[in-house]
Every structure is written in structure tokens, then in C-alpha cells.
What does this fold into?
Amino acid sequence: MFQVRLKECSGIVEAMLDQVFETLPDSQVKDAMRYASTGGKRLRAFLVLESAALFHLPVAVSGYAAVAVELLHAYSLIHDDLPCMDDDDLRRGLPTVHVKWDQATAVLAGDGLQALAFECLTLLDLDPKIRINLIYGLAKAAGASGMVLGQAQDIAAETAPAPLTLEQITELQSNKTGALIRWSASAGAIMAAKDEKPLLDYANALGLAFQIQDDILDVEGDTALVGKRLQKDFSAGKATFVTLLGLDGAKTRAKELVALAQNALDCYDGDATALQEAARFVISRQS
Ligand code: IPE
Ligand code: IPE
Ligand code: MG
Ligand code: MG
Ligand code: MG
It folds into this structure.
């Protein structure tokens, strides 16, 4: 069920992206933005659409929120790959934006994608108060109390005198990867003006499991499948969940988190099966 839904989400996002990009004038930066927003697993879009479906909100209502988070995520990846950040030349199996074009184009494409993400949220056909809640939430999740903070903590860790502790890594990841995942999974409840708590508990465990698997793939993944350069954390001498817990310890922790994520949604009496299956996917994924 999960794989079918994920594929559907991917199709929905691709079609909506075509529409959204049609509104932009032709330019090199537009081409780079479209290039960077293509592909990927679309897990964040899935979380938005599926959490919305839990409250019987159709794609016609939730679609722009799913597109928004994928645009924002694409921006974060372009900037993450820049030479001044992780200096990566491969993303989603293709050359990164600064390699295919140049660094100025990559910076601007990221900027453009972030603005476009918020533009998409303004198009949501929802009560204005709810729409503002969603926009506020994404701004908080993306900015210097969320993803940007996590990215800064991650970069700082590379030159820290001592490796980070497990507690520090957990906090860093909760900002770097967790914030966008939390926003995505709670978006349905926000749109439906329902209690977000079960979805936030789910997202906290899911986000952590997701990042542990990212760290595991960095060590034992296959570049051809993952579509990005591996052993990067290792060569940067970074403390990760794997260096702190060991490979087996990291895998055990990831499994415990999947159970936690799944249990958090038991209160929906079987209506959240696809979201629960997503938790298992997050730690078994090879890309
Ligand atoms: C990669 O995210 C960056 C992290 C937050 C670890 P994804 O693994 O979701 O990347 P795509 O969207 O599928 O390419
Ligand atoms: C990047 O984390 C997360 C964001 C883009 C916010 P990583 O640097 O670990 O992601 P990958 O491994 O390059 O995808
Ligand atoms: Mg990084
Ligand atoms: Mg990176
Ligand atoms: Mg990584």
C-alpha cells in the first residue's frame, strides 16, 4: 500500500510542478530550479498528502502544501551540495546544480525555490487563519530555529574540537532533517484544525530513524542506488549516529524508532496504515 501511495504522490507532485513552473518566465535559473526539483523519493510530499487524507482532505486542498515542501527541500539540497557546504557533485544520480551550471546559478536557484515554496502555500484553498498557520510553521521549520540551524550545527561540528555527543547529534538532526519532516507530517492536522500531537510524535521518531538510515547509507550504501557520493561523513571526520552507536547499534535504534512511530498512530484505528508502513520504508530504503 505504501509503495503505491508513494508513487501516486510522486505523480501528483510532478504534474503540479509542471503547472507551477509554467508561471515563471524562461531563464537559466528557472531551468536549474526545475532540474533540482525533479526526482527524489517525495517522502515529504507523501507525508503531507497522507496526513491530509487521514482527515479526509483531498489533493485539491493539500496539493500545494506537498509541492511547497518538496520545493523547499530541493532548495536545501542545492545549497547543501555547494562547495562551501558539503561540496558534492552528485545528487539524485545527476550532477549537482553548481556542477551542471555554476555556483551563482545554484545559490539563486535555491533562493528562487524557497520563495516559490512560500508562494505555493499562499495558493492553498483554506481558511486564511489556517493558511497562515501553515506558512508560519514552514517558515519556522525551514529557518534559523529549524533546518538552517541544523545545517549550521552540522557544519560547525566538522571543526569542533571534540566529536558531538549522542544528545547533541540528536538535537542537530531534529533541526536539520526533523523540522521539515515534522511540518510535513503535521500539515494534515493543521489543515483540518485537528490535534497535531499524534502526528508530531510519529514525525519525531520517523525523522530520527530517517537520519539514522541516511548515516547508515553513507557507510554501507551503493552510490548507484543512493544517487549521491558516499563515505562523505566518514571522510569529513563527522560524528554521526553510526560513529556513536556503531553500525549494529544504529540499526537497532532505528528499529526501535520505527516501532515508536507506528505506535504513535494507533489512535487512528487503522486509517494511518500507509503512514505506519512509511516508517518501515524509511529504515529499509536503499536510496
Ligand atoms: C536527503 O533527503 C537529505 C536529508 C535530509 C538526509 P532525501 O533522502 O529525502 O532526498 P530525496 O528527496 O529522496 O532525494
Ligand atoms: C542535508 O543533510 C540535510 C539538508 C539538506 C537540510 P546531509 O548533508 O546529510 O544530506 P545528504 O546526505 O547530502 O543528502
Ligand atoms: Mg550536509
Ligand atoms: Mg550533504
Ligand atoms: Mg547525509
Summary: Residues 40-41, 43, 73, 92, 177, 214 surround IPE (ligand 1) (CB under 6 Å). The beta strands are 90-91, 94-95.
